[in-house]
Structures are given as C-alpha cells and as structure tokens.
Design brief:
single chain; 9 helices
Amino acid sequence: MARKSDSAKRAMLVEKALEVFGDRGFRGTTIKHIAARAGIAPGSVYTYFKDKNALFRSTLDEGWDDFLASLDELAASREPFARTLERLLATGFAELSKRLALVRGIVFEADRRDLLRGKIDELCRRIERIFAAARRQGTLRPVPDPAAWRAMLRVTVNGILFSAAAAPPGNVAGELRSLKAAVRGMVAARIGEETGI
C-alpha cells in the first residue's frame, strides 16, 4: 500500500533528479541514482512519480508556469524599457542558472531535445510580447521584418542555452555573466538610441 505523499519530499526528489539528470543525462540516469542522491529507498520514488519519464517531466515543468507568468508581468509593465530589459535578463538568467544541470542534460541528448523545443518556442513568444509592448508604447520602432526578428530571437535563445550548457563546470557563473552582458550589449547596440540604454 502506497504511503501518503509528502510535498516537501516530492520537491526534494525533483531537485535531486534535476541534479542527476544534469550529471548523467536521461539515459544514464536510473531511479536508483536519484534515490541514492536523495538518500531514500528507490521504491519510495514511485510514491511520488509513476516512472523515470514522469520524474524527468516534473523536473522540466516545476516552476515553468511561474517563470512564464513573470515574463507576462514584464510585458504588461509600464516602466521604462531599459528597466524592463534588466528585469528580463535578471529573471531569465536566474531561471537558467537554476535549471542549468537539466538544460545540459537535454541539450546534449538528442532524444530529449523535443521536450526543450516547446519550452523554447513558448519562451520566445513571451519575449516577443515584451518587445511588442515596448513598440506599442512607442519606445521601440516597429521591426521591418518580423519573421527575421523572430528568427534572430530564436537563434539568440538557443545560443545562450547551448553556450551555458557547454560551459566548464568551474566557470558556469562567469559564462552566465558574460552571456548576460553580451545580450545586454547586443540589445543596446541595436536599439540604444531609441531607449536610452
């Protein structure tokens, strides 16, 4: 008979699974590996998750809706675009830092990339809304080729994810700082005269 679920233990399992999937990839990870990292018996994992796929999906999905909601708040913001951009960068890079182990496990494992693709599509749509709001407010000029702009946004997001995932473990914080500064500089160079960034 299954024991009653404990939300703190479930959250801890998701956290440990995030670490193990990041270290070993999906195929290289077993429920035993996750249980060992969590300090519990492997059978206990099944009290909270049907199987390894369900646990993997939870590591990807936990907190995602909250992250997207924070981006929606930025799109609705009336603050100066320079401030909105800083908040976007802070929010996005904090989430990437938190989930980097998982991103690393997905980016380098071909059969898991489909899970990330949908998340990237949604992330790009939310970022587009932030820039569209600034255009509606007159802060930014309309883009002459929206399809090209969307493609560049997608390339940028994918490049950030790949670069962060490929960073040597001892230099992750430095790589994330460099990527954040590069994005800030790229946006400033592109639209600086319009926004005062």
